[in-house]
Write a structure and sequence with these properties.
Elements lengths: L50 H11 L6 H25 L1 H5 L2 H22 L6 H4 L1 H5 L5 H17 L4 H6 L17 H13 L3 H16 L9 H14 L3 H14 L4 H19 L4 H15 L9 H8 L8 H4 L4 E4 L12 E7 L4 E5 L4 H11 L4 E2 L2 E2 L6 E2 L4 E2 L1 E5 L5 H14 L9 E6 L4 E5 L19 E8 L5 E2 L2 E3 L4 E3 L6 E5 L13 E3 L2 E3 L2 E9 L16
Antiparallel strand pairs: 1-2, 2-3, 3-15, 4-8, 5-6, 7-10, 8-9, 9-18, 10-16, 11-15, 11-18, 12-17, 13-14, 13-16
Helix pairs in contact: 1-2, 2-4, 4-7, 9-10, 10-11, 11-12, 12-13
Keywords: Dioxygenase, Endoplasmic reticulum, Glycoprotein, Iron, Metal-binding, Oxidoreductase, TPR repeat, Vitamin C
EC number: 1.14.11.2
Function: Catalyzes the post-translational formation of 4-hydroxyproline in -Xaa-Pro-Gly- sequences in collagens and other proteins.
């Protein structure tokens, strides 16, 4: 049989609005930089003009139009009607509505991809005051990176919480409201766009999942004006081929050709797949070797998790699985009233302390801050929220990282009496000196927001960690939860198999260092992705300097 060329695909379109066009197998696609969906609870609305106001303006701008302009007005009206549906539900409960990942994805997509199409229609007439202002408003809209980030957030949730595409598509996520007004469903176009985002990042695993879901919804009778089965099958055949499933690739290609017999690329791919399968049949002696090659290829093109060996354990803990607390150990955990050795502030009103874990000792303080204090901290932080950073051990500086998806701001004690009060309370409760601690860090984890397993302290291979502060290592962590989370968002400790659930107004405290000053590697922890809702926390990292007589050194390394 004549040697066949590998399947060739078209170049990927530069815009999400273009027709689907997978690239040839030899073309390397660099991964795009995703700006993950992790904003504040205000959501991705316009600055100064919300979606509802925008829809109203679009409706008003169509009046008095005739001729060719009437077509533009009809298209404008259709788009405004769609935006009306989203904004009506969003205005009832903005935080609750945008706390659902499907709602957030659809709103970002509508304000980015579909708006670009509408903009090209209406900007031909600059006479209307509202229309002439569109370009100014556009700069405050989400962009392609935001839309890709929202898509990646959905896939992250899908993986972590083992959600099938049907569950995500219908919006019926665990813990979500059964009210249809509070959730959206993913259309064929939405599923197709999710698959394209995965494809653009050479993630054939998720490409297959979402293209298959789009095809399933088409087969069920859902209509689409922009996506057809041929386009979906084109992506499907190539993505499964890249995962080593030749027979499935051949089946999808044959189905594509039944719909479009003249499809040039599919005809070429059909010959290639048939050739490869016949070659496999003739080389039965090498089946085991080829199966191993296919397995390696599937692993290569499935989820990229090599950089985090403990990912499976981390995700199981996020799902509430494999918690390592035994009944015997559980019986030794207590709740108590804590006055920190009859501290003057707590003699009459002690705080409620609960043991969360025994080794290492992790405690939770309930009702440690008031609602008014938490709202003030959020109010101070919101204008300053920026993409969260981590400490780079190589440079000693703070930098953004793909494994930390949130926004954060830093608040000094001098900025408001409430911040100073919280700092003083931390010192009174823990008995540690907070004058050498870092400023209060306020973090917001939106839909899909997470912080993968990490240590808070500087390790021996990071000799310059926190050197610029001159206050030593991080001896302890105070983690204050300033919101409840509908689903997801737990703090998990991967080394010991512990999971701590967010509870508004409570704070979790643990030591990162042994009394000897050596790091306690059992404190490796992570913030699980937020499945539903918004997660607000504030961190206080307390350093070694100033604790010499408050927490005395031990004689042994693990003391």
């Amino acid at each position: 049989m004549e040697q066949q060329q590998a399947p060739v695909q078209r170049d990927e379109p530069s815009s999400l609005l273009d027709d689907p066009a997978p690239p040839p197998p030899h073309l390397h696609l660099g991964s795009q930089r995703p700006l993950h969906l992790c904003g504040s609870d205000d959501g991705p609305a316009l600055r100064g003009e919300g979606p509802g106001d925008l829809a109203e303006g679009l409706h008003q701008s169509r009046g008095g139009q005739t001729g060719d302009n009437q077509k533009v007005c009809c298209r404008t009206s259709e788009w405004a009607d769609k935006l009306d549906l989203l904004s009506a539900a969003a205005l009832q409960d903005p935080e609750g509505f945008l706390g659902h990942p499907v709602n957030a994805f659809k709103l970002i997509k509508r304000l980015n991809t579909e708006w670009a199409e509408l903009e090209s229609l209406v900007l031909t007439d600059m006479s209307d005051v509202f229309v002439s202002n569109l370009t100014i408003q556009r700069q405050n809209f989400p962009n392609d990176d935001d839309q890709s980030g929202a898509a990646r957030a959905l896939m992250r949730l899908q993986d972590t919480y083992r959600l099938d595409t049907e569950t995500v598509s219908t919006g019926l996520l665990p813990g979500s409201s059964p009210l249809a007004s509070m959730r959206s469903v993913l259309t064929v176009e939405d599923c197709f766009d999710l698959g394209k985002v995965a494809y653009s990042e050479v993630d054939y695993y998720h490409t297959e999942l979402w293209m298959a879901q789009a095809l399933k919804q088409l087969d069920r009778g859902e209509t689409s004006g922009t996506v057809d089965a041929v386009s979906i099958l084109d992506y499907l055949s190539y993505s499964v081929y890249q995962q080593g499933a030749l027979q499935k690739a051949l089946d999808f290609t044959r189905r594509l050709l039944e719909l479009d017999p003249t499809h040039q690329r599919a005809n070429g791919n059909l010959k290639y797949f048939e050739y490869q399968l016949s070659k496999q049949e003739k080389e039965e002696d090498h089946q085991e070797e080829e199966e191993e090659q296919r397995r390696r290829r599937r692993e290569t093109h499935s989820r990229q998790d090599d950089y985090l060996p403990e990912r499976n354990k981390y995700e199981r803990l996020c799902r509430g699985e494999d918690i390592q607390m035994t009944p015997c150990r559980w019986s030794r955990l207590f709740c108590r009233y804590h006055d920190n050795g009859r501290h003057p502030r707590f003699v009459i009103g002690p705080v409620k302390q609960e043991d969360e874990w025994d080794r290492p000792h992790i405690v939770r303080y309930h009702d440690i801050v008031s609602e008014k204090e938490m709202e003030k901290v959020k109010e101070l932080a919101k204008p300053r929220l920026r993409r969260a950073t981590v400490h780079d051990p190589q440079t000693g500086r703070l930098t953004t990282a793909h494994y930390r998806v949130s926004k954060s701001a830093w608040l000094g004690a001098f900025e408001h009496p409430v911040v100073d009060q919280i700092n003083q309370r931390i010192q009174d409760v823990t008995g540690l000196d907070v004058s050498t601690a870092e400023d209060l860090q306020v973090a917001n984890y939106g839909v899909g927001g997470q912080y993968e397993p990490h240590y808070d302290f500087g390790r021996k291979d990071e000799p310059d960690a926190f050197e610029e502060l001159g206050t030593g290592n991080r001896i302890a962590t105070w983690l204050l939860y300033m919101s409840d989370v509908q689903a997801g968002g737990a703090t998990v400790f991967t080394d010991i198999g512990a999971a701590v659930q967010p509870k508004k107004g409570s704070a979790v405290f643990w030591y990162n260092l042994h009394p000897s000053g050596e790091g306690d590697y059992r404190t490796r922890h992570a913030a699980c992705p937020v499945l539903l809702g918004n997660k607000w926390v504030s961190n206080k990292w307390i350093h070694e300097r100033g604790q010499e007589f408050r927490r005395r050194c031990g004689l042994r390394e693990t003391d």
